[in-house]
Amino acid sequence: MRVGRAELESFRGGTLPDLLGPKVRLLFAGINPGLRTVAVQTHFGRPGNRFYPALYRAGIVDRLIDVTDGISAADTEHLKAQGIGITNIVPVATARADELTTEELVAGGEALAERVRLVKPDVVAILGVTAYRAAFRRPKAVAGRQPEDIGGVPLWVAPNPSGLNAHETAASLAEAYREVALAAGVPLFPPPEV
């Protein structure tokens, strides 16, 4: 799907629905959707985002999911069958996550905790330590299992898959996501040979 810069701007402030199946083992929470993500109505839908390649390398999914033109129904069902859910801390689209205010992140964190209480996943993984620190007022938090739960559910902080998070590689993202998936009891596939 080809979308020009001016057209992308029209998606600012837009939203997309959470990806939730009947039983969510692992709920991934991104920071907020990007403009292209809302345009294609697919979480992590920007070309070059490493979320789906990392899921594949981690063995969380059995194939490389291509979201260039949005996610297919078959891939959506595969994620749900694996017990994978996807949401965001802040539901509204911006061009970059650093456009969000601390107040928006804090309000989003409160809303996420309530959503977790309703969805009842086995584990929550927030993707982005900087956003987590702001949203949950934990300025010294580090990645990994957090000492506190969210909505009564074990909480992990894992790296954000955005290309702007340049110090993370596809391999390091896959390793972090696999660790969280194991904690959530997600059935894993053998990772592909790379």
From TrEMBL:
<protein>
    <submittedName>
        <fullName>TDG/mug DNA glycosylase family protein</fullName>
        <ecNumber>3.2.2.-</ecNumber>
    </submittedName>
</protein>
<keyword id="KW-0227">DNA damage</keyword>
<dbReference type="Pfam" id="PF03167">
    <property type="entry name" value="UDG"/>
</dbReference>
<dbReference type="GO" id="GO:0008263">
    <property type="term" value="F:pyrimidine-specific mismatch base pair DNA N-glycosylase activity"/>
</dbReference>
<dbReference type="InterPro" id="IPR005122">
    <property type="entry name" value="Uracil-DNA_glycosylase-like"/>
</dbReference>
<dbReference type="InterPro" id="IPR036895">
    <property type="entry name" value="Uracil-DNA_glycosylase-like_sf"/>
</dbReference>
<dbReference type="InterPro" id="IPR015637">
    <property type="entry name" value="MUG/TDG"/>
</dbReference>
<dbReference type="GO" id="GO:0006285">
    <property type="term" value="P:base-excision repair, AP site formation"/>
</dbReference>
<dbReference type="GO" id="GO:0004844">
    <property type="term" value="F:uracil DNA N-glycosylase activity"/>
</dbReference>
<feature type="domain" description="Uracil-DNA glycosylase-like">
    <location>
        <begin position="17"/>
        <end position="178"/>
    </location>
</feature>
<keyword id="KW-0326">Glycosidase</keyword>
<keyword id="KW-0378">Hydrolase</keyword>
<keyword id="KW-0234">DNA repair</keyword>
